[in-house]
Each structure stands twice: as C-alpha cells, then as structure tokens.
Write a structure and sequence with these properties.
264 residues, 16 strands, 2 domains, globular, DUF2797, 8 helices, alpha+beta, binds zinc ion, DUF2797 domain-containing protein
C-alpha cells in the first residue's frame, strides 16, 4: 500500500494509549496500526501550507515569503506575551488575531523530560501536551486571552523551565513529579493581573504513549538529505515516529514536505 501527501502534524485522540493519525488530502493513516510494520518513506518535494508552491520550507510548514506574511506565523504565536489583539492593535491581520487570541487560554505545567511551563488555547488541551510528549500535565491558570497567559508564563519562567529535552523525552528518561505540589509552589509567582484565574482544585492528567521500545540514542532523520528511509515503526510519542534502529522522525518539524509512504 502506498500513500502520498503533504505532512502536517499528526492528529491525535486522547485515549489509553494515545491514538495517532496522519492525514493526507485523500487518505488518513491510523499510525497505531503501523506499529511493528516496516515502512518506507520517500521525499517527493515541498508544498507550502499557505501558497502550496513547491518551494523549500522555511519554518512551521511555510515557505520563506509566506512565513513572514501569514498571520499564523507572527511572533505572538511563539511569544504569547507579545499578543496585542486585546488592545485592538493589529500585527498582521487583526480579525485573525482577535479570533485566536481573545479566547480562553491555559498556562500549564507539563513533564516530558523535566517540568516546564507552557501556554495553549483551552481548546488545545490535552492536544498540546500530547504533541510535546508529556506523560503528565496540569493546568494552573485559565485566563480570557493570550496576553495574560503570556505574561504569566514569563513570570513563572524564573522558577520553572520553559524548554524540554527531546532526546530525554524520546529515551523516556523521565521521572514522575507531583505537579500539584509544583502548582501550589508557583502560585505566589503568578502576576497580579492573573491571580484571580488560578485553578486551585484540579489534578494531574496522565498520558500514555504507544511505544513498544524506547531508543537509547535517538538519531534524527533528515528525509530531504536521505531522500529515502526504510524502518520498522516501534513507537509514537509527541509528534515523533520511533523506529527499531533508533531513528526518530519529527512529523511536526517536517510540515510542508511531500512524502510517499509505502507499507512493505
Ligand atoms: Zn508559501
């Protein structure tokens, strides 16, 4: 069986274990069913997620000119504290910015290789945690817009990491933390504007990934360079495919690439 299409991040379902789907224009592949199967992946070309042209992907699935143009790739996406829609100020497209920024946002703690603080739209819980490969997470603040979430994250960064180590996440080199204890400890450092939105009473969410065997030394696959790769799928974690020979492939960071997948 052969599938061809442009990569976008895998869709997921929060089940035990997490279910993963690769969605192409005319097909979707339930990736959990490919575990233990041998897959060939071939690089075919590029298809920018905005203009659809076969131009090298710059970042986030966009070619360079789209990346600096489309509202989905503005700075406030990565740096929520730069959000300005609540002030009625336009960055690239005020209507889009209002729609995305002026909705409930969550500041959370997630543990994927260490405990980190992060921000997401409420509608993206627990998808965001799955995408990061976190095995446990908890909401700490729910605020009405992205800006408030951003300044809360900035304030908490002095007391908790905001980055994770993808190698440790894939090696499953992790330990369980009591995120309720972390949350209670961080409460005092939430900025005054967001104190009223603190979530006092919730508990950890646990996430279980379909991984049969974790790599000891994960090697990242560059499919553009390799042109073709064949391997046996042994796990799905975060947005990574994990293969038996310890090769790993981050679907999300390869958005916009057109690939051909063959089941051998
Ligand atoms: Zn483009």
């Amino acid at each position: 069986m052969t599938y061809q299409g442009v990569l976008t991040k895998m869709r997921t379902e929060f089940k035990d274990p997490i279910q993963y789907y690769l969605v192409f224009e005319n097909d979707f592949i339930h990736m959990n069913q490919l575990l233990t199967k041998t897959i060939q992946m071939e690089f075919v070309g590029y298809q920018c997620l905005n203009c659809s042209l076969n131009k090298p992907i710059y970042r986030q699935g966009f070619c360079k000119s789209c990346f600096f143009d489309v509202p989905q790739a503005a700075d406030w996406i990565i740096k929520p504290e730069l959000s300005k829609a609540h002030l009625d100020e336009e960055e690239r497209d005020l209507e889009y910015e209002k729609r995305v920024q002026l909705q409930p946002h969550i500041v959370y703690l997630a543990n994927s290789s260490n405990v980190k603080v992060g921000v997401t739209r409420k509608s993206q819980v627990p998808t965001r945690w799955i995408d990061q490969g976190a095995h446990e997470a908890i909401e700490i603040v729910e605020v009405p817009n992205r800006y408030l979430a951003g300044i809360t994250e900035i304030a908490l960064k002095d007391y908790v990491a905001d980055k994770t180590n993808w190698r440790n996440m894939l090696k499953n080199d992790v330990k369980d933390e009591d995120l309720v204890v972390w949350r209670n400890r961080l409460k005092a450092h939430i900025p005054a504007e967001a104190q009223d939105y603190y979530i006092e009473t919730n508990t950890e969410t646990q996430l279980v990934f379909p991984v049969q065997h974790y790599p000891k030394k994960p090697k990242s696959l560059n499919i553009v360079k390799a042109a073709s790769y064949t391997g046996t799928l042994v796990g799905l974690k975060g947005q990574y495919l994990i293969f038996e020979d310890e090769t790993v492939f981050n679907v999300r960071s390869n958005e916009g690439l057109v690939v051909k997948l063959s089941l051998l």
